[in-house]
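Provenance and format

Records in this collection were gathered into a single text stream. Each protein contributes a sequence line and a token line. The two records reproduced below are adjacent in the stream.
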Amino acid sequence: MSHATKPTSFPVAEHPQRARVPARIILAYAVGVYLVFGAVLGYAAGFFAGLDVPKGIDQGPHAAVPVATAIDLLLLALFAVQHTVMARPWFKRRWTRIVPQPAERSTFVLAACLVLALLFWLWRPIGGTVWNLRGPGADVLWAVYVAGWVLAIDSTFLISHFDLFGLRQAWLNTRHVRYSPPPFTERGLYQRIRHPLMAGFVVIFWAAPVMTAGHLLFAATATGYILAGIAFEEHDLVQSLGGTYTAYRARVPALIPRPWLGHPLLGAQRSEEHDRKQAI
């Protein structure tokens, strides 16, 4: 879920390492982490759907509702803290005094995978059905669920998929090429919404034909975290990109597209009209 999503990333100041780690070791580490990420992502798809995994979101050992709620919220808070703190530039500057800079992003991804795996393992189901759709209604929600995954995964390739998961950094290191973050981009889905990756996950969390109390707890809490995470991320993006991102944020909505953004000229006209009304 990782904030796991970004039009750009932040360069991290270089620090001398006590012992230089061979570039091929870092690359092998990055590839291994990427494979772990793929496995965790596949499990996540089954976990939320309750299909083809040993333990889904509504399966596993039961506990009293207060105990189960406390455990689940603690697991979600652990993921939020890991994802938020490790993504901040100030943390990266300190962290790369310990971890080689080309391995920093892969280490972030590995930490996120481990926290997610812990959440899948220790999550406690909470009974009570909020809604239970059958027939065509359930089919529609399953289609929306799949569309959410397509949206989330596709959005990573619109920026730099391999940079987002640490492979590009490790590869450039083997080529002795200095790393530079991908340039700011505004193409494809990023022309309609600023955070398509996060939008995809919101869809995934809520597109459940059977919504239990436990699933609702996850969906509501995770959505709240996404909204808070967007605020943290955009603060960093404004600091990094300045007016470029400020103008982008004023023009393009965060998660829900506006119909008139489908045509650039029409979108610009609406933006100008809005500015005039604000001036009046």
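Adjacent record:
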Amino acid sequence: MQARGLRKSFGSFVALDGLDLEVTEGEVHGFLGPNGAGKSTTIRVMLGLYRPSGGEVSLFGGSPWHRPAELHRRLAYVPGDVNLWSSLTGGEAIDLLIRLRGGPARSAERDRLIEAFEFDPTKRIRTYSKGNRQKVALIAAFASPAQLYILDEPTSGLDPLMAQRFQAEVARVASEGSSVLLSSHILAEVEEVADRISIIRGGRRVETGTLEELRHLTRTRYSIPTTLSPQVSHHLAMVVHDLVEFDGRTTFAVEPGHTAQVLALLAEADVPGLTAEPPSLEELFMRHYSERDLSADGEAR
């Protein structure tokens, strides 16, 4: 799946503004951004539901706008807000969704997923909570193989345990060679399973890479189980951020370029121990969505 310079406008509103995105074979690609950043619009263009206003988009080497039916047989899609047939039971809805993709209605994999997601397939759709409607779509998506899974806020409404089950299924299909585009604003979810990450803002990709590749963009936090001498603290304060000495412990944050200098200072001070905490995906994300960043553009989109 590939997009180059992808644009989509709705009247005067520009939803996608030259977006570049690529999901390679067998990878889980996290697609991050807050609501309104353009994630769902990108996915709808990829699915052939929206015609792009400009740029190029390719799904399995073909155009999703011109060949949607053919290409959809090779993918599974789960939206963040699932609408189903209210008079059907959950099991009937699962079977119908599987058949629409060309798979067998009932299978051992279907039954395994129903058990794994602790789902009751005998109840009518109209009685289900949002989380249970999500389970219908997830079970149907994972019950038969697909080359590409497009998941748009797929754990919306799921409790933490079911979200873990979802992550296990993503890992399973990726290990079998399928590609996954996981669109989410839940940072911990993406951090847990993604091989690569793209951060989108205002319809444009602002960063992409593995988590390790992106971590160079933010500071690493360090903790020392002691306070430091005034002289060492003075020298340290000149090259670190947020230096705090409290309750017999010293904490601070270090830019990547100052790491060697800081470690040399600490070695000279003969500190009894050091704990390093690499930047989280949330820190990387907030780098692009800080209040100061957003205020520069007027308001968040």
